[in-house]
Design brief:
Elements (H helix, E strand, L loop, with lengths): L16 H31 L8 H28 L4 H13 L1 H23 L4 H36 L10
Helix pairs in contact: 1-2, 1-3, 1-5, 2-5, 4-5
Pfam family, one: DUF1757
InterPro entries: DUF1757 (IPR013869)
Keywords: Membrane, Transmembrane, Transmembrane helix
Length: 174
């Protein structure tokens, strides 16, 4: 998100603070909803004979789509409740800290990239409708986060090996 929005040196100068915080909260709500909805779709497939009339993947994607919409609505209400009556500087401070947090920005980038790919793939499958697009985007965003964590762990071990000075053997002493 920090690539597209201005990030001043001081929090009190942060423009678009409400937009930044709201976008972040809705994004995380969609991630949570996709994960829970996908689990629900998989469990429903396993427990219901009616749900087994369609493939497992379709059930998981549909469940994720409904989870994305439901969780996004819930976190929007929660954000409104939490930030109701707060001064502008509090919005600016929270959004400034989000833009300042480099790992959070990487997670946002990977998650948004995964959501784009997943949304396109979910929209290609006929018969899934809006649940296919939103579910695919939600699952893609979760896959993006998991991919970033795996990439970061692998990259972190390589950097630790270089710092330890034992790059030939690949063993890091702690």
């Amino acid at each position: 998100m920090n690539r597209f929005l201005p990030h001043p040196d001081y929090a009190e100068d942060q423009p678009y603070s409400r937009t930044i915080l709201t976008t972040h909260v809705l994004h995380r709500g969609a991630n949570l909803g996709a994960a829970l909805g996908a689990l629900y779709g998989g469990a429903r497939f396993g427990l219901s004979a009616h749900a087994r009339k369609s493939p497992l993947a379709a059930s998981v994607v549909r469940g994720a789509g409904v989870g994305v919409v439901a969780a996004s609505g819930l976190v929007a209400v929660a954000l409104s409740w939490r930030m109701y009556g707060k001064q502008e500087i509090e919005w600016q401070d929270r959004s400034w800290r989000l833009l300042e947090n480099k790992p959070q920005n990487k997670i946002d980038e990977w998650s948004a990239s995964g959501a784009l790919v997943g949304g396109v793939l979910g929209g290609v499958k006929k018969g899934l409708g809006w649940r296919g697009v939103t579910g695919g985007a939600g699952i893609g965003s979760v896959v993006g986060i998991v991919s970033w964590v795996a990439y970061n762990q692998l990259r972190g071990k390589e950097e630790q090996t270089k710092v330890a000075g034992n790059s030939e053997k690949g063993i890091v002493k702690s």
